[in-house]
């Protein structure tokens, strides 16, 4: 499976989001972090801005919802045209019902796990999802360092997905850079979110290409 790169616009200039989406036109997705100051101690943007981002982005949008009550709010992001909507396992009341609703609305459905959340209770639900997101930092902020202790969870998901013969993508988010992406790919991740590494680079297209090449060198 090829490696997909999804730069996070959390590290973009919020006064120039259209320009900064244009800067990642060679990426596979634009990763949009929605934070509500309840599920995480930070606040970013909501549906009115998100709807415009979908309209102006040169690449499909991958929504990462760090919000309370995703059962209520997540379908709106699929209706707005997100290619993928990921909500947190810790926040959802009825994850299967919500995943089915997202798929019915035409979006891929993703389930996110904080670093300390075990995947075991969710393994039986893998067929209901298109992607599992393993947070490799505590959600809420960009620029944190990669938590190596999440690698066994990535391997566990990779093994469960392949044993079940499923095509569930594994995304990593947080602290992904040239220094860490190979270990995440080796463990089984195939979708790589990078905020500060991409937007902090001198040459953004070159950084995206370098991350993709490093990940593909270790892909399964
Ligand atoms: O979801 C989040 C943070 O909660 C991320 O998507 C960050 O935006 C990643 O930033 P870097 O760690 O790559 O700087
Ligand atoms: Fe994210």
Can you describe what's shown?
Its EC number is 5.1.3.1. One of its GO terms (molecular function) is D-ribulose-phosphate 3-epimerase activity. The chain has one domain (4-216): Aldolase class I (TIM Barrel). The protein is built from eight helices and eight strands; from the N terminus they run E-H-E-H-E-H-E-H-E-E-H-E-H-E-H-H. The protein has helices at residues 17-22, 47-56, 70-79, 95-104, 151-163, 181-187, 196-199, 204-216, and strands at 4-7, 30-35, 61-66, 84-88, 108-113, 131-135, 169-173, 191-194. Helix 5 (151-163) links the parallel strand 6 (131-135) and strand 7 (169-173). It is globular, with a radius of gyration of 16 Å. The structure holds 5-O-phosphono-D-xylulose (5SP) and fe (ii) ion. Fe (ii) ion binds at residues 8, 31, 33, 64, 173, 193.
Quick structural overview:
The protein has eight helices and eight strands. The chain is an alpha/beta fold.
Q: What is the terminal-to-terminal distance?
A: 7 Å
Number of helical elements: 8
- Spatial extent as radius of gyration: 16 Å
- CATH superfamily grouping: Aldolase class I
CATH class reads: Alpha Beta
Give average pLDDT, whole number. 98
Strand fraction equals 15-25%
Helix content: 25-40%
Bound molecules: 5-O-phosphono-D-xylulose, fe (ii) ion
Biggest sheet features: 8 strands, parallel
Integer count of domains:
1
GO molecular function, one term: D-ribulose-phosphate 3-epimerase activity
Family: Belongs to the ribulose-phosphate 3-epimerase family.
Enzyme class: isomerase
Binding site for a divalent metal cation: 31, 33, 64, 173
């Amino acid at each position: 499976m090829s490696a997909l790169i999804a730069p996070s616009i959390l590290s973009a200039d919020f006064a120039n989001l259209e320009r900064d989406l244009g800067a990642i036109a060679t990426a596979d997705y634009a990763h949009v972090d929605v934070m509500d100051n309840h599920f995480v101690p930070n606040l970013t943007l909501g549906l009115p801005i998100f709807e415009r981002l979908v309209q102006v982005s040169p690449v499909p949008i991958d929504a990462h919802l760090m919000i309370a009550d995703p059962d209520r709010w997540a379908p709106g992001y699929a209706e707005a045209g997100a290619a993928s909507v990921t909500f947190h396992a810790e926040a959802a009341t009825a994850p299967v019902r919500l995943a089915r609703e997202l798929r019915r609305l035409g979006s891929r459905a993703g389930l996110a796990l904080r670093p300390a959340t075990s995947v075991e209770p969710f393994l039986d639900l893998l067929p209901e999802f298109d992607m599992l997101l393993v947070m490799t930092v505590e959600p809420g902020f960009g620029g944190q360092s990669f938590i190596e202790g999440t690698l066994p969870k990535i391997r566990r998901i990779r093994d469960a997905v392949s044993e079940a013969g499923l095509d569930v993508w594994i995304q990593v988010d947080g602290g992904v850079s040239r220094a860490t992406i190979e270990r995440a790919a080796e463990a089984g991740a195939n979708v790589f979110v990078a905020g500060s590494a991409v937007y902090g680079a001198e040459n953004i297209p070159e950084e995206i290409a370098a991350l993709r090449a490093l990940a593909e060198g270790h892909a399964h």
